Each structure stands twice: as C-alpha cells, then as structure tokens.
Amino acid sequence: MTLCGVLNVDKPAGLTSRDVVNQIVRIVRPAKVGHAGTLDPLATGVLVVCVGHATRLVSLAQEGRKRYLGRFLLGQTSDTDDNTGNVVEGGDWKHVTLDHIASLLTEFTGCVDQVPPQFSAIHVQGQRAYDLARRGETVDLASRPVEIFSIRITQFSPPELELEIECGSGTYVRSIGRDLGSRLGCGAIMTQLKRLGVGPFDVADAISPDRITPATINDVLQPALKIVSHLRQRNLSTEEVIAVRRGQSIAVSRSTDAHIDCINEPDDHRIALVGPQGSLLGIGELDTIAHRLHPRIVFPD
C-alpha cells in the first residue's frame, strides 16, 4: 500500500529538519517525504512532514500561519542572531522596561520589511547565505516583506524576554529579536524557540519522531485533506473523479456549489477536490466565468 498523508512531528532540539525527514524516509520508503518549513537545530515544536503524494502539497502547508514562543537575552549580540554563534556583549539592558518593549512592538507587526540573518538558507548568487557566512564572508542581504500578525509579551525577567509571535511564511524570529534589541539600544539574541503551530497543526497534538515506526505509521499518519483545510472543498461524484483523473474539467452549479461558485475575483480560486470516500483527490482551480473546475494537482488512483 502506498502511503499518503501528513505527520505533525514535535521536533526535538539538536536535530535538523532534514534529520527528522531522513528518519521518516527509512520507515516509509519508497514513498517520498518532504517537510513544510525548516526549523533550526536550536528550535523545537511543530514540523509538518508530508508523505507520498502529499509532498505535492508542501507549498500549501507552508501557507498556514506560524505560531512561535521565543526566548531572548538582552544585552548580547551574535553573528547568528542566537546563542549558537559568536556571542559578544551588547549595550546596557538595565534601563529597559516592560512598557518600553511594549511600545516598540507595534513597529514589528503588520507587513514589515525584514532582513534575514546572515546565517540563513537564503540564496545569494546560487549559494546559501549560511555557507558564505561560515567562510567568513559578510553578505549584504536585502530586506524582504513578511507579515507578522501579532507579538505578545509572555514573560519579562530582565535580561530575559519571552514573546509569543504569530506570523506568515518566511519570517525569521531571530531577526525580530535582533531588530528589537537594536531598537532598545542593547542588542538581543534568541536563546530558545518553540514552534507552537502551523495552520491547523498544533504542538499539543504533535508526536515525537521516536513514536513513528513501521508498526505505528498508519496510526499517526493524518489525511492529506488536513493540509488544505483552509481551502474551500468540492465533493466529487464517481463520474467526476474519473473525469478529473483524465485531466478534464467539471462543471459547478450556482445552486449546488454556491459555496465555491460565488467566489469573487480577488479570492482564492483553489478548491480541494474530495472523492466519494472523503479523501483528498487533488486541487482544482475555479473558472468563475465558465463555472468549471480545472484540475491542477491530481493524486494517482
């Protein structure tokens, strides 16, 4: 039986995201495996791992809002923006107050321009920024727009600060700490990071990699449909399944498919295609003029 689905893995500290994927590959091969959103070895928490044909949905899984709990140490800076790099003394943190921090957080929410860390996976002229940084090269990384929905102070015991952050894809929590420390005039480095959730995947439901074995894989593997729970759904008849598998579009009706056929032009036209047994068949794109769904991603039978 070909495995297809998603794993909500609670990544422990010390492992790379690739380490976790490699463990799962050995269990599910020959099925493909891919993760949605890298976590540094320092970080723990939710790592969404797609298995089998669900790897075609990795980009959709990455669209989910990310929720983090980060701890920072004021009065320090480093080349990695966390405590794994070359740490040096920053400025005096003793003047920093809770109100001062709170007053600055509005600068870091909304659609903001953020410069990634020097040690990051950003491509620079065909090379990873962290490879250049490890060779001692200073890279001029351009800022990128990221969306940060909220930042909440959960603990402040000077010089330690804990923040709960909800953000979009591509956001570096290390950069938030670095830039906040700069605005405070004392510097700050990240010391801990826990990813609390990605879209519908919550850390409370995540499983340790050690719990994923050949004997348990069918029990812990969740349906691929959960990856696209943020999309509108269209249930297909047996005849429509056949048509979609042939690459043919199917008609939608204003009466029976009002929940998708009333989509306005700026809205998301991607529709999750669900088979008669309730499993995800693929992703379709709605043509609002012709009132038809065109298959864009279709899982094999």
Please summarize what this structure is.
It is built from eight helices and 18 strands.
Question: Explain this structure to me?
Answer:
- This protein is an alpha+beta fold.
- Helices cover 19% and strands 35% of the residues.
- It has helices at 17-28, 58-61, 98-104, 129-134, 173-184, 217-220, 238-245, 258-261; strands at 5-11, 33-36, 44-51, 66-74, 76-78, 87-89, 110-114, 123-124, 127-128, 144-157, 160-167, 188-198, 201-202, 232-235, 250-251, 270-274, 280-287, 292-298.
- A hairpin with a 4-residue loop joins β17 (280-287) and β18.
- The mean pLDDT is 91.
* Rough outline: elongated
Number of strands: 18
The number of helical elements comes to: 8
> Number of folding domains?
3
N→C terminal distance:
12 Å
Q: What CATH architecture of the largest domain do you see? A: 2-Layer Sandwich
What is the beta-strand fraction?
25-35%
For the largest beta-sheet, the strand count, sense and barrel status come to:
9 strands, mixed
Helical residues, percent: 10-25%
CATH class of the largest domain: Alpha Beta
Q: What does the average pLDDT come to? A: 91
Order of helices and strands: EHEEHEEEHEEEHEEHEEHEHEHEEE
Kindly list the characteristics that best describe this protein.
301 residues, alpha+beta, Pseudouridine synthase, Archaeosine Trna-guanine Transglycosylase, Chain: A, domain 4, 3 domains, 9-stranded mixed beta sheet, 5-stranded mixed beta sheet
Topology diagram in text:
Elements: E1 5-11, H1 17-28, E2 33-36, E3 44-51, H2 58-61, E4 66-74, E5 76-78, E6 87-89, H3 98-104, E7 110-114, E8 123-124, E9 127-128, H4 129-134, E10 144-157, E11 160-167, H5 173-184, E12 188-198, E13 201-202, H6 217-220, E14 232-235, H7 238-245, E15 250-251, H8 258-261, E16 270-274, E17 280-287, E18 292-298
Parallel strand pairs: 3-12, 14-16
Antiparallel strand pairs: 1-3, 2-3, 4-11, 4-12, 5-6, 7-10, 8-9, 10-11, 12-13, 15-18, 16-17, 17-18
